[in-house]
Every structure is written in structure tokens, then in C-alpha cells.
Amino acid sequence: MSYTALYRKWRPPVFDDVKGQDPIVSALRNQIQTGRIGHAYLFCGTRGTGKTSVAKIFARAVNCEAPVNGNPCNQCSSCRAVNQGNSVNVMEIDAASNNGVDNIREIRDEVRYAPTEGRYKVYIIDEVHMLSTGAFNALLKTLEEPPAHVIFILATTEVHKIPVTVLSRCQRYDFRRISVDVIASRLKQLTDGENVEIEERALKYIARKADGSMRDSISLLDQCIAFHYGELLTYDKVLDVLGAASYDLFGSLLEAALDGRTADCIGLIDEIVMQGRELGQLVSDFIWYLRNIMLLKASDLDADTLEVSEEELLELGRMSRKISEETLLRYIRVFSELSGRIRYANDKRVLLEMAFIKLIRPETEYNLDSVLNRLEILEKKLAQGYVVSAVSSVEQNPGTVSDDEMHAGSDHGMEDSTMAMPVSQTDREVTVPADQMSRYEVLRGSWGKIISALVSRSARIALQKSGLEPDRSGNGFCIVFFEEKYYAIGARTPYLTAIKEAAQQITGIECEFRFELRQDGTPGRFISDEQLKSVFRGVEIEDE
Questions:
Q1: 147, CA 20 to 30 Å: which among 33, 91, 140, 464?
Q2: Element housing 506 (H / E)
Q3: Is 195 left (phi over 0), alpha (psi -120 to 50) or beta?
Q4: How far, in Å, CA of 269 to CA of 279, rounded?
């Protein structure tokens, strides 16, 4: 015997087994019990919410020889004929492929004849919104005044496409999305019946992934069982099969973005791509993750309300304390814009990487929320004991922006970007000779051009993460790295010669350079000896 898909095998046979549509089930069952059966019904709602299943149950119940509390018995000859698909009284019509006027005319001719057995002829027209305008017009009169032995059940996922003239002739029932708890409970019954072991957390995830559709959830479960048949279905296995990412990964991405660690974000995205994750789904899930953090910050919600596990709720709470509502709103806006574009993009990875760079560098955007985010970053640095000075980012972080780019920004009326220099209360300026200080200022202003003159691309990237300082042990200059990985790439003897030649060619200054690794991450602060002589306890002393 061939395999039957789980969503077909576990289709509800009676009204009692229909989950998540209690008001509709109660109304239809009462009509059957009281004999107040209408002639036309319209079942509308999203996919997989039970429209066709309820229509089939209703079709069996109206002709059942021994109904029980409004439910079909599924034992009589009429019920068995419908279940086996050979009943002459119940006709299922796919409007997507039978949408012409001639198809409706055939129905109109057939309804004149009474059923050979049973009380009613039932026509179930699925995806009725696909009928042509002419077909709808041909159906109108029959819908308005059908024979007493005919019932029409129209099902659609796009009720807005149904003409008002048809809507007014039907009893309308809106099938709502099914909650995660209801879907998870149904899946638990199914797995118990199929002798499948599965973690509760995995069940919850499949239920949430189905987006309110019972059929989608059962199809996803069927897919996971096929991959790991006979094994315990764990949360990690379900994530692997469905190509989804866990809350731990979302937390790592968000923390890296908040800390400004661009390389870590790109590395995590590379790991996701290598695992074969679907990037469009990743964006949707990340928006949902940010939404849960926002709701948790806005009100004290529990795990059931947010539809997450207790462990995930703790993780959400930890992240909510690290991010402000304004920043969250900006992140959600950036990824909402991305979700609309990534679906049809040829290179989804590039769009995703650019989105995270936008998160990390709000100065790349000119929206109000980006400006607020930049102010928030500066406020945090001030609160941590940083000294903020309105100096060029080229001067404080050499090699990140070229001189041409800096002047281009000024041409657009933009002020020089602010940089924060970490310094403790005990730090003091280092004095250097006046001539060395003057050469240092010239080199620092042209450092971006000097780096750009290097042939090696890897050297340029590594040196962009370095800083230039006067050499405290000599009259030359020190190129300081704050991370070992960039030091290992950029601190090579051939590069010293290339830097020396480029500096002499660009600035006309001939000097010596050396490399240094400083893992405490603190840049030096320098003042010339002449400036030091003119300052005493913060008060400038003028010459008489």
C-alpha cells in the first residue's frame, strides 16, 4: 500500500476533531441538529485552517443516516461513499481549473435533478475566487434560488475577490489562524499515534513555524520525520531540516551588531550560508526575534504570550536590557525593508551583509532614528568614561577613511564625524619633541592615502585596524595594532619599507616606522613639549 501524507491521514473525521474553529463548528453542528440548514455557505480564511475539512464533514453530516450530536457517523453507506470518493451526492470542484461559464452551466443543469439517495446534493467549490466574471454571473441565480435539495459550499483564501452579489447570497464563516498551543497539542496527538518521539520544544517550533496553518504544521512534521525516521526528533534536528536558525544564533548576531563587531557579523553570516540556511527565512525569523524583544521591553509578558520556551524567554530578557527601544525600532525598520527585497534578489547574502553594516554604522543612514542611534552610542561612551572630541575620524582611526572621502563629506555640509577615545582618570598625555609632533600631525592627516598606496590588499585591510603614534623610544613613529589577528597580517618587514616610501612620496617626510601589538586596546595621547610648557594645571600661561 502506498504511503499517505500525514495531513491526509489525520484529516478530522468529525466536528469534534476540528481544532481552533470552535464558533464555526458549533454553528454548523446546531444547524444540523435543528434542521435549519442553509442553501449556500462561504468558508474563507488562510490556507490550512480547516475549510475543506469542515466542508467534507458537513457534507457527510447532512446526508448521514445516524448522526451523533451533529457529527456524521462515518459508518453508514452514505458516509462511506463520501469517504471513499464515489458518492454521487457530494461533488468537489476545483475552481482553479474549472472556472469557465460552461462549467457552471453544467452545475446549473445538474441541480434540477433530485439526489438518488440521501436528502441533499452538496457542491463543494474550492478556490471559488478563481471563477471568471461570467462564471460568477451564471452562478448568481442558482445561488439565490436553488432547489431545496441542493447545498453550495464555497471555499476561498481571497474573499476580497468574491463579487458582493455572491457574498450577499451566502452564510459567511471566517476561519481564523490557529494558535501555537492548539497546533502543538494536535501535533502531540499525531506523534503519539504515529509512535514518533519528539521534544516539546521542537513541537512548539514547528507549530510557530506553521504561521497559524494546521496543514502546514503537519506537513513540516512529516518532512522532519522523513529525515530522521525512527530517531528522537530534537529541536536542533528540526532546525537543521527546516533550514532555520536558533535563538542563540540570533542573540550572537544582535550582540555583535550592538558591539560594532562587523567582522563577527560577517563571519556568522558565512557560517549560516555554509550550513545551507534559507536567508529569506532567516530575515523573517530575525524580525520576529526583534519583535519579541520589543514586546518584552514594552510590557511584562510571559513565555506563553510570546510563544517561546522558558529558556528563550530568559535570553530575550537578557538582550532586552542591552538595547534601547529606539535602536530596536531602527533595527526592525532596516530588516522589514530588507524582507521586501530579499525574496526576489539574486544575491541574498550581499543584501543581508549590507543590512548588518547599516545596523552597526548608523552614520550610513540619514533617517531620524539613525541620528538618534548615533546619539545613543555617544551617550553610552560618555557614561563609560570616554572623552569625545570633535576631530576627524581619519585622525583618530587612521586608514578607515581617505582624505578625499573626508573632504567630500565636508562638501555636503556635514561636520567631521566624532570619535571617542577611551581614557581613564589616571591617564596622562605623553610629551614628544615639537618637531616630531609636527611631523606626526602631517602623517596622521595623510595616513589614509599612505595605506591606500600599498600594493597588498591584505596589508591595507590590516593597517586600517591600526593606529599611528609617535615612537616613545625614538624619533620615528609606531604603527600600533590592537588585535593579534591584524598584527599577524600587517606587521611584516616588507610593509615597513613600502610605508616609508609611500610616506616620503605623499608627505615629503622621511622617517622610520616600527610595528607594535597593544592588546589592551588603548591608544596613546600625545602633546608636544612646547605645549606642555604653556599649560599649568589646565590654565594656559601667556608670555609677558
A1: 33
A2: helix 493-507
A3: left
A4: 9
Helix, strand and coil in the chain, % to nearest 5: 55, 10, 35
| Model pLDDT, residue 428 | 46
Q: What are the residue ranges of helices labelled H in 145-277? A: 164-167, 180-193, 200-209, 214-227, 235-242, 247-259, 262-274
Q: What is the per-residue pLDDT for 375?
A: 72
Low-confidence ranges of the chain (pLDDT < 50): 387-428, 535-544
Closest CA to 363 of 405, 321, 422: 405
Cα separation, 72 vs 65, whole angstroms: 8
Q: What are residue 271's phi and psi, to 5 degrees?
A: -65, -40
Partners of residue 386 on adjacent β-strands: 422
Which of 217, 208, 166, 144 is CA-nearest to residue 42?
166
| Dist. CA 497–CA 503, nearest whole Å | 10
User: What is the reported pLDDT for 145?
Assistant: 82
How open is the CA angle 516-517-519, to the nearest 5 degrees?
150
Q: Which of 114, 15, 11 is nearest to 70 (CA)?
A: 15
Q: How far apart are CA 308 and CA 422, in angstroms?
A: 39
Q: What is the DSSP letter of 20?
A: S
Per the structure block, which three cell numbers stand in for 18?
476540528
CA–CA separation, 221 and 49 (whole Å): 16
